[in-house]
Fold Xylan 1,4-beta-xylosidase.
Amino acid sequence: MSTETADVTTTRSIRNPVLPGFHPDPSILRVGDDYYLATSTFEWYPGVRVHHSRDLVHWRALGGIVTERRLLDLRGCGDSNGIWAPDLTWHDGLFHLVYSDVASFASGYWDAQNFLTTAPAITGPWSDPVRLHSHGFDASLFHDDDGTVWLLAMSADWRPGRNRFGGIEIQQYDPDRRQLVGPTRLIFTGTEVGLTEAPHIYRHDGWYWLVTAEGGTSWEHQVTVARSRELFGPYEVDPAGPLLTSVGRPDLTLQKAGHGSLVRTQHGDWYLAHLVGRPYTPLGNCVLGRETALQKVEWSPGGWPRIPGGIPADEIAAPDLPAHPWPAEPATDHFDAPELASWWSTLRRPATDDWIDLRSRPSHLRVYGGQSPVGKQTPSLVARRVDAPRCALETVVEFDPGNHRHLAGITGYYNTQNWHYLYLTRADDGRTVLELLSCDSGRRTPYPELTVDTGGARRVGLRVRFDGPALHFAYDLGDGWRELPVTLDATILSDEHAAQIVDGEPAAWGFTGALLGLWVQDIGGDGHYADFDHATYHQKG
């Protein structure tokens, strides 16, 4: 909780993005005076990252909801598979979370299993998940005024030659029986823009308002609004065009604007939470990934929701609510807590005590080595999001490798195919050395000329630094920091670089963003671990 008392001064503006870095597909919710944003996490635990605000300006990370394998099993999960587009709602004293676990996107198949879990508080405890249908991803719940509950989702069509985004379907959910009931109905097939997904329905002014994303999640993205007097339609699309898009405006800071959800404040103001990307060059690579922004929504005389210009603004008017800042996140994590702090994520497996140990050695994070950098069952990577173009993570590690199968160090990471890694290992002659290895689209590049003999140093400082499109590593053997004399390409750690299309089919997608991490391998399964004394994160100007 905040150590400060919220004052009565109205916060004047919201600066976008409100959640910088890898925070895509936002679902926004107000419960009383509290606002929550849930975002996609893909192959990372904890699943469904949640942030909390009291004024829509200041946000604090609460960690994630899906923290256990009973809720989600990501063993073997492919890059950018896993949790897509969560939906957070509140009804009858319970939080409801719907999330899609997507197992594939190859050859037009998604294999998207949808789940529902509930809890009396945002912090849990969360119920065992209910298996819903697998008709398509981006599922959401709509709680109608008459007490009925409905599941929405995009309707996927795997058949060659058909529209894979077949429209938006709806089916009733029975909360007492905890299952879907009745027929599915296709209520909206989208506009000519296509790729219709991410449905949300709202009631306002006697209408059902259907908000969807169209155009795909990259440069052609948009938020489409349609309305109907009846739940099942027909739905009329806003004749003025999309509610929000950055298509055709490469001059805008915020690109890829789309995938939105609406929230109404206590005083009746409306805001749209939506996805954006910030390329370093016009329509270039977005190293920070897909981020979350907010826009003010006004209702036109014709009854339609509108955003000024229909484009994403860098700064908007905040609601008339008391300012409620939270204590600043500490720059240094000394690993004094019994669990990982809310800013950390772990790759493909939850932070359980079989490989994460914060108790055996006080004020140290002990990480037991996992699989190789391409392993998808038991990797050992603890990472945090890159949320500024210029930032750095530094640590001090103690590690006694037994052979070349034991590695521990620091990384700039995107996925199993794209990363840069500075690590300690054992050379064939018995020396402990620092080595650098990069992987670009699965092609590894070693730098043997940059190998550093640690001279038997027990504690080694390691640092990875992002400087816009460049990445640098440094080390400290006890006599001060020394930067490795190489500039690495940070832009390979981006959605755009990760995506691969072969013969018109997606061979790989990129939906996450760059991360800074502490990485340990025990490829031989010998029980080796590394101790990290602290981790300090710096944002640069």
In short: The first strand starts at residue 13 and ends at 15. The CA atoms of residues 207 and 229 lie 5 Å apart.
